[in-house]
């Protein structure tokens, strides 16, 4: 999401074409890279669950299982993502059969997803990890070029960054019900993000660091997009008198936005390189005119979260119904993503209809997989093992999700990034700037790039871990 001095865009022929089969291929290729990091989280959970070590040892075990594969699969090992995911699918089936997890799940009294669904912790951490790796990796020659942001149309890995950040922001937000809610949302969330955006502009101007104007405009950046989205989304949500009214409200925003892009000529205006940037608005047209799309994503994400947490203590039948709903959502969103790629296109720079469908295709897929694997399979297996130890005579084993305190440390890196996500992202941006200034990544060999990226990720994740270990929340 950060703008680099080097070009961050990939401009093959299809990138300027609205209707492209390439975008469909890219959308699934991006999903596979996300799944490699997700696979590392699964491996780490299984290992840590069995070893039951201290938080520090857990972190040291998680890092090579989660972060190192992320670094490798966007650089020197980019051609092996599919094979790795395929291997993990085979191992997952073997684990399910060996542990009889599905049979045990059917006998379980209930499943406690918690007031904040654990799957959301996973997907938020995925977004932070992949973005943090990519914003620095892109400056190395070892970075896989097809993962770079699309200039106009496309669905590359780095195109997911800002969209998934908005989705995860919405997933942990709620509708503004009154002026007090709105004031709290603006002061605690929107204003700090906007101030960070201003600070980043000042820093870039001061040190002469390059910013590509085709990303958000000459002056705007990701922090502004997140802050303005939170601001506009919070204000707009006041119109809805209930959470269920957010869905039609979001649909109205999406339809209006897409019509303005396709019929009103806004898309051509944003993407025309020949148009001058003579005013503040025209200079930042990419960032400003994509905001309605991001606001729609934010509102839809609140709807998704309300549905997920509408009931968190579920029977086996209810959790299967929840998973079935996520599967239907994912299949529909992927179908509409492919249809959009062949009609209106997929464009991050305008946050059009195709991009919105793509974001929710990824999110519904990852949330569904997280609930299935962690809540239904892995957590169920550990709960059953605990039940086997406790079940004596008439004693009834408690087959529920472990308490928050008891489960602390089972996802050290994920929990650390969720506790201080903004702090982690800020540290990643500052560290990226330092590496670019002092280490000249464009001149580094492939092995050196992997070493630098690994050291950088160790620094930023360990800093987040130290805060988590001490239960310190900054932002």
UniProtKB/TrEMBL annotation:
Endoplasmic reticulum as UniProt keyword: yes
Pathway given for this chain reads:
Glycolipid biosynthesis; glycosylphosphatidylinositol-anchor biosynthesis
Enumerate the UniProt keywords alphabetically: Acyltransferase, Endoplasmic reticulum, GPI-anchor biosynthesis, Membrane, Transferase, Transmembrane, Transmembrane helix
**Superkingdom as given in the UniProt entry:** Eukaryota
EC number annotated for this UniProt entry: 2.3.-.-
Report the top EC class in one word.
transferase
Q: Which residues cross the membrane?
A: 28-48, 55-74, 80-97, 117-140, 152-172, 193-210, 222-239, 246-267, 287-305, 326-349, 355-378, 417-438, 450-468
State any GO BP term from the record: GPI anchor biosynthetic process
Q: Where in the cell is it found?
A: Endoplasmic reticulum membrane; Membrane
Q: Which GO terms describe its molecular function?
A: glucosaminyl-phosphatidylinositol O-acyltransferase activity
What cellular component GO annotations does this protein have? endoplasmic reticulum membrane
Recorded topology in the membrane? Multi-pass membrane protein
What role does it play?
A acetyltransferase, which acetylates the inositol ring of phosphatidylinositol during biosynthesis of GPI-anchor.
Q: Which family does it belong to?
A: Belongs to the PIGW family.
Name this polypeptide is given: Phosphatidylinositol-glycan biosynthesis class W protein
């Amino acid at each position: 999401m950060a703008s680099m001095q080097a070009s961050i865009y990939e401009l093959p022929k299809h990138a300027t074409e609205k209707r492209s089969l390439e975008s469909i291929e890219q959308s699934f290729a991006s999903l596979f890279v996300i799944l490699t990091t997700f696979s590392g989280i699964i491996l780490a959970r299984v290992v840590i669950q069995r070893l039951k070590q201290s938080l520090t040892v857990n972190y040291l075990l998680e890092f090579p299982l989660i972060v190192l594969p992320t670094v490798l699969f966007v650089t020197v090992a980019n051609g092996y993502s599919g094979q790795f995911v395929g291997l993990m699918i085979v191992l997952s089936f073997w684990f399910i059969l060996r542990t009889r997890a599905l049979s045990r799940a059917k006998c379980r009294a209930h499943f406690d997803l918690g007031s904040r669904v654990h799957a959301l912790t996973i997907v938020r951490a995925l977004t932070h990890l992949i973005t943090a790796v990519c914003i620095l990796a892109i400056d190395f020659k070892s970075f896989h070029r097809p993962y770079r942001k699309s200039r106009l149309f496309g669905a590359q890995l780095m195109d997911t960054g800002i969209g998934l950040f908005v989705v995860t922001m919405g997933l942990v937000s709620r509708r503004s019900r009154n002026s007090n809610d709105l004031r709290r949302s603006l002061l605690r969330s929107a204003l700090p993000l906007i101030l960070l955006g201003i600070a980043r502009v000042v820093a870039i101007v001061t040190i002469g660091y390059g910013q590509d104007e085709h990303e958000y405009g000459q002056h705007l950046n990701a922090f502004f997009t997140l802050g303005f989205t939170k601001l506009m989304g919070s204000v707009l949500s006041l119109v809805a008198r209930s959470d269920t009214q957010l869905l039609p409200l979001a649909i109205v925003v999406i339809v209006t936005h897409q019509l303005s892009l396709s019929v009103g000529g806004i898309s051509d205006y944003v993407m025309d390189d020949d148009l001058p940037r003579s005013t503040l608005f025209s200079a930042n047209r990419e960032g400003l005119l994509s905001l309605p799309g991001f606001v729609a994503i934010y509102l839809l994400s609140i709807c998704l979260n309300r549905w997920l947490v509408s009931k968190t203590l579920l029977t086996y039948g209810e959790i299967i119904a929840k998973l079935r709903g996520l599967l239907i959502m994912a299949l529909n969103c992927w179908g509409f993503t492919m249809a959009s790629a062949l009609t209106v296109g997929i464009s991050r720079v305008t946050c059009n209809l195709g991009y919105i469908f793509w974001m929710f295709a990824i999110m519904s897929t990852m949330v569904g997989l997280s609930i299935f694997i962690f809540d239904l399979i892995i957590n169920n297996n550990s709960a059953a093992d605990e039940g086997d130890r406790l079940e004596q005579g008439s004693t009834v084993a408690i087959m529920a999700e472990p308490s928050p305190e008891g489960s602390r440390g089972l996802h050290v890196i994920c929990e650390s990034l969720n506790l201080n996500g903004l702090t982690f992202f800020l540290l990643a941006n500052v560290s990226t700037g330092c590496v670019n200034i002092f280490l000249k990544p464009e001149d580094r060999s492939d092995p050196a790039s992997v070493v630098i990226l690994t050291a950088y990720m160790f620094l930023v994740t360990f800093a987040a871990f130290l805060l988590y270990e001490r239960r310190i929340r900054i932002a």
